């Protein structure tokens, strides 16, 4: 599942701890919460490696699910996602819930990289801003990279197929997929590998909606970075727009250039000219027949 942490209403790395799971932001119960857990949360968010915890008892109806309870991070855990806990269950807390407020100390988080509140290109977070392709000849061809936890990372090519590529191309706004490429066909990426074993049905709006394993298992290397080659034509583009660039949102097909477009234009104009000449020849013959 695509998972994330955030400090809701955070200000200088301080706020209510929430976790993103199953497409929804929810809370974390305070049972068994240890200083080690707090430090790993701060580390995960880029807010230093230490902090302190405050809890406030909430009563009555509480909005949103409580995804986690009894999170018990120990000295052997180097990441929050490695810590044992109770099973993921929206009913893991009772009606009375402790609201966890964490204040991290040390390195402050860059506000432009705050997870869940900022995107790489704008303050309005959209799926299209969380994906890019690198190393290709245009913006619809290259190594697939995703924006997550404040940085760009790659996707492992294990089980990477045309259904996954269809979703990636759709999320990029690049029309249908032409081919899938593996083994770092457009060069090896750097940084984290965010997703492994991606299994899309092909109908999802974004790769983040597909089933996948987190890429922090260590079973994949950048020599296995996945890539795509998209057609480059958005579904709403007409052939006329593609040829004349009347619509600025239209993108020429991947791998095509001005020469191929010129060739197509010449073929169309030539066919029209031949048709016109044929009509004129017919009119001349008819006129001669009438004259006789």
Automatic annotation (TrEMBL):
Residues 5-105, 131-231 form the SRCR domain. Disulfide bonds join 29-93, 73-83, 156-220, 169-230, 200-210. SMART domains: SR. It holds the Pfam family SRCR. The chain crosses the membrane at residues 259-282. InterPro entries: SRCR (IPR001190), SRCR-like_dom_sf (IPR036772). GO terms for cellular component: membrane. Keywords: Disulfide bond, Membrane, Repeat, Signal, Transmembrane, Transmembrane helix. This is WC11 protein. It comes from Bucco capensis (collared puffbird).
């Amino acid at each position: 599942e695509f998972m994330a942490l955030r400090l809701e209403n955070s200000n200088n790395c301080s706020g209510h701890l929430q976790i993103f799971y199953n497409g929804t932001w929810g809370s974390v119960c305070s049972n068994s919460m240890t200083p080690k857990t707090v430090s790993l949360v701060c580390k995960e968010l880029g807010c230093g490696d230490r902090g302190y915890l405050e809890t406030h008892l909430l009563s009555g109806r509480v909005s949103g699910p409580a995804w986690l309870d009894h999170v018990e991070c120990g000295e052997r855990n180097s990441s929050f996602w490695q810590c044992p806990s109770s099973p993921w269950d929206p009913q893991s807390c009772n009606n009375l819930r402790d609201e966890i407020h964490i204040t991290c100390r040390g390195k402050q988080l860059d506000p432009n990289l705050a997870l869940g509140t900022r995107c790489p290109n704008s303050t309005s977070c959209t799926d299209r801003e969380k994906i890019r392709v690198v190393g290709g000849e245009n913006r619809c061809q290259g190594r697939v990279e995703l924006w997550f936890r404040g940085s760009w990372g790659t996707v492992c090519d294990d089980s990477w197929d045309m259904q996954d590529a269809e979703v990636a191309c759709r999320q990029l706004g690049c029309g249908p997929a032409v081919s899938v490429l593996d083994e770092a066909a457009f060069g090896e990426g750097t940084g984290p590998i965010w997703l492994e074993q991606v299994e899309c049905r092909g109908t999802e709006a974004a790769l983040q909606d597909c089933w996948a394993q987190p890429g922090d298992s260590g079973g994949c290397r950048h020599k296995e970075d996945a890539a795509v080659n998209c057609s480059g034509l958005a579904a709403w583009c007409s052939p006329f727009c593609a040829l004349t660039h009347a619509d600025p949102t239209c993108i020429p097909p991947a791998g095509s250039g001005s020469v191929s477009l010129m060739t197509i234009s010449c073929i169309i104009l030539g066919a029209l000219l031949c048709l016109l000449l044929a009509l004129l020849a017919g009119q001349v013959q008819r006129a001669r027949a009438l004259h006789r």
